[in-house]
């Protein structure tokens, strides 16, 4: 359930002023988002473990260690960075701040509409939490970073003993998954949409930790944006190197640990610790694993991007990131068309191997289309709709038309 926020950091900048490292990093994360979500679209995550191909167990382990929750971490961090940049440009301009709040309300509308078709939408969380974070926009980077770590790592571990009774009142996961799979395999749109609604309600009621997961990363992204690490990476290379040296080894060590835990059939018990204390400590370590490896990916990408040869290769991802909203929603359309009963109905029959093939085809097509589109137009199609609704007027889309048009309203 890993989904991007589209172009929040730099959508209001003219093309020549965009921050390429953010766009390329978003494109990189979008690839991870697609690969992760295709497992859901293919219904692979809804089938019983006994029905999953044993020969793909190594692939399951690899994706669990390196992908799960990491792409989502990168995108949430980028939204936090964009949140800080947008409000920094707005300054004390009350109108610009209201416009950005309206922009988040529009994002909430996109998210609610998308959630009607796919239960995995997270744009709703970005929009609502973004509105709630407006009062923190002027906080110091160190304060935001401290709050982010507390929320992302410690909050759910402390709350877990109190939330177990809440989760227990809902249907078991296997029962909810079986009902959802039956609905998604149906060729009837009404059955699919009703099943999606029910599974969406169940999932977001039982996944009570998701708001904390997201909020912590938004706060950390705000800290990075306020400190200028992504806007001026050359001035902060020492900080990026320190972050990489701390986060990547920590994340990899914990990822290996949880591979043995999750795929070795071990319970939550730890040496000398049992019961609720063991479960709370296990969740804390898992939170740290997700966050540290995601931060390691960001730091490694930024440092690689400073080398000209690597920048030429990684820059290929920038157009994908500039059209993140359009590409993300198109990924949902591809997923439904390929795997759901209302489309081709492939479902999970080809396992994770089929998911990898679909990923390669879909992402290559999206990359090619993004390059083609942005040579002709200033913004992605849905990014343009979002901008027009934000400013409540039709804005030029074609590059030639945009060059000849009168100046647009002041950016917020």
TrEMBL record:
Signal peptide: none
InterPro entries: Bact_Transport_Assoc, DUF418
Annotated DUF418 domain residues: 225-392
Top-level taxon in the UniProt lineage: Bacteria
Coiled coil: none
Protein name: DUF418 domain-containing protein
Species per Swiss-Prot/TrEMBL record: Lysobacter enzymogenes
């Amino acid at each position: 359930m890993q989904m991007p926020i589209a172009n929040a950091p730099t959508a209001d900048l003219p093309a020549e002023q965009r921050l390429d490292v953010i766009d390329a990093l978003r494109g990189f994360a979008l690839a991870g988002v697609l690969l992760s979500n295709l497992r859901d679209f293919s219904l692979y995550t809804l089938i019983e473990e006994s029905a999953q191909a044993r020969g793909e167990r190594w692939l399951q382990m690899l994706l669990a260690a390196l992908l799960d929750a990491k792409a989502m971490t990168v995108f949430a961090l980028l939204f936090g960075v964009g949140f800080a940049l947008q409000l920094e440009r707005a300054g004390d301009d009350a109108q610009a701040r209201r416009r950005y709040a309206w922009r988040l309300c529009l994002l909430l509308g996109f998210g609610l509409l998308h959630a009607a078709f796919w239960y995995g939408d997270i744009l709703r969380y970005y929009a609502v939490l973004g509105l709630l974070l407006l009062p923190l926009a002027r906080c110091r980077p160190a304060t935001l970073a401290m709050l982010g770590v507390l929320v992302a790592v410690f909050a759910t571990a402390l709350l877990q003993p109190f939330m177990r009774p809440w989760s227990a009142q809902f249907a078991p996961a296997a029962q909810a998954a079986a009902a959802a799979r039956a609905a998604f395999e149906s060729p009837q749109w009404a059955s699919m949409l009703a099943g999606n609604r029910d599974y969406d309600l169940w999932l977001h009621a039982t996944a009570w930790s998701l708001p904390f997961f997201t909020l912590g990363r938004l706060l950390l992204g705000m800290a990075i944006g306020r400190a200028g690490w992504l806007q001026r990476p050359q001035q902060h290379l020492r900080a990026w190197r320190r972050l990489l040296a701390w986060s990547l080894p920590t994340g990899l060590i914990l990822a290996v640990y949880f591979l043995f835990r999750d795929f070795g059939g071990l319970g939550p018990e730890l040496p000398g610790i049992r019961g609720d204390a063991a479960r709370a400590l296990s969740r804390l370590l898992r939170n740290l694993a997700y966050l540290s490896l995601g931060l390691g990916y960001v730091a490694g990408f930024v440092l690689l991007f400073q080398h000209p040869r690597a920048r030429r290769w990684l820059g290929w991802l920038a157009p994908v990131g500039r059209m993140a909203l359009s590409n993300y929603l198109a990924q949902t359309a591809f997923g439904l068309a390929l795997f759901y009963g209302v489309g081709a109905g492939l479902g999970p029959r080809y396992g994770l191997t089929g998911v990898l093939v679909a990923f390669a085809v879909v992402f290559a097509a999206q990359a090619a289309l993004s390059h083609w589109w942005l040579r002709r137009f200033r913004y992605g199609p849905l990014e343009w709709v979002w901008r027009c609704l934000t400013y409540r007027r039709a804005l030029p889309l074609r590059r030639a038309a945009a060059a000849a048009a009168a100046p647009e309203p002041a950016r917020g």
